[in-house]
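chain below, 44 aa
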Amino acid sequence: MSDSNHHEDFKDAAGKRFMGVSLVCLIAIALLPMVLAWVNFFSA
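prediction:
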């Protein structure tokens, strides 16, 4: 009984980590054009 419960906890933790990675990727993609614009602005 405790073994299957532990497996569920592990799966939940993996899901949370996947959500966190996805969120970071989305934020990076959203900020990328802004960062490129700043780089172009300062290098010009």
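Helices lie at 2-43. The radius of gyration is 19 Å.
thats it, cya
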